[in-house]
Specification:
The chain is 36% helix and 19% strand. β2 and β3 form a beta hairpin. α2 packs across α3. The chain has 163 residues and is an alpha+beta fold.
């Protein structure tokens, strides 16, 4: 497991602001946090070097790109061996319909978030991209009706001091 990084209230405020709008300028960030722009730049640079900030992403609307149907595919792979994990994950990641892939514990080995044009496209993907593979034992499909993003990811709150 990766080591956590010690973050002070200024760092946490910067991260909260950047997660809400990664395009905020250093000058605007500094004004909102109450530090000099050079201090703001130094802190964000330190957070990038420490691996706290991994990058910036552009979020697209799948429906406006012709992929209005989203689903979660629970996939069971047999045999579930180390030498199959890497190649299987890379194949799934290479599919243009794949949004994210999770390696799981429990009865299913993977959970794959996909975005497709319609039900026919989903059926094609499941049959051609998954169940046709010799290592895939089972695929269970769940349609996504709606999705919500949650708040900024911040470290757990420190436990309150008790006397």
């Amino acid at each position: 497991m990766a080591e956590s990084v010690v973050l002070d209230p200024v760092d946490l405020h910067l991260l909260r602001l950047l997660q809400n709008d990664a395009r905020t300028t250093y000058r605007d960030l500094a004004a909102q946090v109450g530090v000099a722009p050079s201090t703001c730049l130094d802190r964000v640079t330190r957070l990038r070097r420490a691996g706290v900030i991994l990058g910036h992403r552009l979020e697209l609307d799948p429906a406006k790109l012709g992929r209005g149907l989203q689903a979660l595919l629970s996939v069971q792979v047999r045999p579930h061996r180390r030498e199959l994990v890497g190649p299987f994950v890379e194949r799934i990641r290479a599919l243009p319909e794949s949004r994210s892939v999770f390696h799981l514990t429990g009865p299913d080995d993977y959970l794959v978030h996909v975005a497709v044009a319609d039900m026919t496209d989903l059926q094609r993907l499941v049959l051609d991209g998954f169940t046709s593979r010799p290592e895939v034992a089972r695929v269970e499909t769940r349609l996504i009706f709606q999705q919500w993003e949650c708040g900024p990811l911040l470290p757990p709150a420190a436990p309150a001091n008790t006397p």
